[in-house]
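User: Quick sanity check before I run a bigger batch. Here is a single chain. Can you write out its predicted 3D structure?
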Amino acid sequence: MIHFQTKENVIDWLIDNCPRPAIVRALEQGKVEFLGGFKLIPPSTLPGWIIKVNSIYGKCWNIAVLANDIKHIYEIRIMKSVPWKNWIGTNSHNELFSGDNPEKYKELKNDSNRKKT
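Assistant: Done. Predicted structure follows.
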């Protein structure tokens, strides 16, 4: 199992391994927003990263790359929604966990946590 160092590593791995040609085309030609790291991505209990992908035709997907340390593989899931309460990013410059817009994601996480109470 390779260890990702940058968001580009995650996106390149997804391009090479995604079984959905439309998503691969969107990753290569559309708009990609790297949302950063998540401590777990339901319905699994696995951590990983989520990438928001918009095709040039208007289709949008939230794609999760899950890190399965037990099987020593990465897995791909298409998410209906983003589990912001599980976002583990910071405002640091480590975009692998913080994502492309950490201030926005921090607010989304805080809003998600407020809704629980």
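The chain has one domain: 7-110.

User: Great, the batch can go ahead then.
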